[in-house]
User: What shape does this take?
Amino acid sequence: MSHVTLSIVMPSFNQARFIRQSIESVLNQDFQDVELIVQDGMSDDGTVEILQEISAKDPRLKWTSEHDDGPSAAVNSGLRRADGEFVGWLNSDDLFLSGTLKTVVTSFRSNPSWQLVYGHAEHVDETGDLIGKYPTQPPTVGLDGFKAGCFICQPTVFFRRSVIERLGYLDTTLQTAFDYEYWVRAFGVFANEIGFLDPVLAQSRLHESCITKTKRDIVALEGLKISSEYLGGAQWHWAATYLDELLEIHRDQPERFLRPALIFLDRAKMYATRHHYSQAIWAIEQITKRHQSVT
Assistant: This one.
């Protein structure tokens, strides 16, 4: 078995419009001792043809297209295939910036105590235009830093393959927040062995079909679940943020806000204090009354 320094896992499903650029952001780096493992979930949009074309020219791209149980299961499959000393994963619509891989490997070599490292990131839109910086915080904020939300952007994270032996794999029961849960676990185990790199390492793409946009209620529920399990109690801002977003979506038709809001609260109430839950119900009632008075 041949060994490589760095393995990048790329979960993919029907991202043909983005995946070529994502692959090139890995293979066109100035660091060449890398393998790219694409775990495709049987895409039918032309993704497979792109993978066939690129892998015929560059054997560093290794791919399979088969049924999986979602992105976390796909990443786990790729991690099991990874042969690199260091590992990262990049979604098939995200991008590494130039020089990222060399910077990461050099940092690990220079800091042998580091088990995991991450850095700054940017949000870009469908066309690659900059939206803004990701709200990254350094490791010095500690585990308590996660109480305010996830301060680590997933494509900037790299870790030694030995980390998997201690942490295990991603939690496949989570649909959206499996990366956030993994970072929380890592901070609990490797508190003083996490490095931080100041440069912008990656770009995370926000578009209408990405998980962050399409499963906002699940993001909130899983944020509540993870904070409840690891951070000493559910952080209700996950629910409040989702309800604010839901109200904004239905601002012109607030009667359409009521049903999904109540459904969400029914699912979230197991994580809520009595005060939080009663305040949320009261706020929803006030919105409904104001709408009724207007109509």
About this structure: Residues 274-294 form the longest helix (21 residues).
